Amino acid sequence: MERLKLKVVDDRIFQDCYDIDAKLLVKIKSFLKFLIVPKFSAEKICPWVRIGMRLRKYKLNLLSDWCHYRLLKKFNCVISFKATIGPKLFLPHPIGVVIGRDVKIGEKATIYQGVTIGQSKGIFPVIGNNVIIYAGAKIVGDVHIGNNVIIGANSVVVDSVPDNTIVAGIPAKVIKTINQTNNYR
What is the pTM of this model? Predict the structure, then answer.
């Protein structure tokens, strides 16, 4: 009963704001809900990565570190804001994803849970466009992953991978070549 009364009071408080500018208030409420609501959602991780990268770019390190801490605590993933990540990155299950600081990832990459992309002897991997990296895969060292590549689950990639291929295994080997007309997603 008290909760219902509180909601009515809150609605009356915001009623004046609706009269002023309803659209602005809806945008502010949705942004605050995005920041505060503890509900887990895979769609919420990529904006945090982008915000952290922008903050790092403009030398706002304290806020960038806060975004990094939030990613670590809320989503249990470590993504360096110094990495170069192309648009449309998709992390359907971001738990346990680790991306190193100088990694370069192209457009439309899909990365599943438990993936590690890191350095070996100070050299980081470069990943092309339209790449799918399945759960538990490790990509380490001076590796160039081509465009339209699928990396199988629990694969360890230590050598470069050509375009339009499927790789799997420990160490990863080319299993199949993909025609560009195939819809492999």
Answer: 0.72
| DSSP string for residues in 107-158 | TT-EE-TT-EEE-BTTB--EE-SS-EE-TT-EEESS-EE-SS-EE-TT-EE-
User: pLDDT digit string (tens) for 86-114?
Assistant: 888 888 888 889 999 899 999 999 999 99
- 89: three-class secondary structure by DSSP: coil
The domain defined by 44-177 carries CATH number 3.40.50.720:
no
Q: Count the residues in the chain.
A: 185
Of 7-11, 29-33, 65-69, 95-99, least confident by mean pLDDT is 7-11
DSSP letter assigned to residue 75: I
**Beta carbons within 10 angstroms of residue 143's beta carbon:** 19
Do 127 and 104 touch, CB atoms closer than 8 A?
Answer: yes
Q: Burial code of 66-101, b = ≥16 C-beta within 10 A, e = fewer? A: ebbeebeeebebebbbebebeeebebeebebbebbe
> Does residue 47 have a cis peptide bond before it, meaning omega lies within 30 degrees of 0?
no
- Token pair, residue 15, equals 């009623």
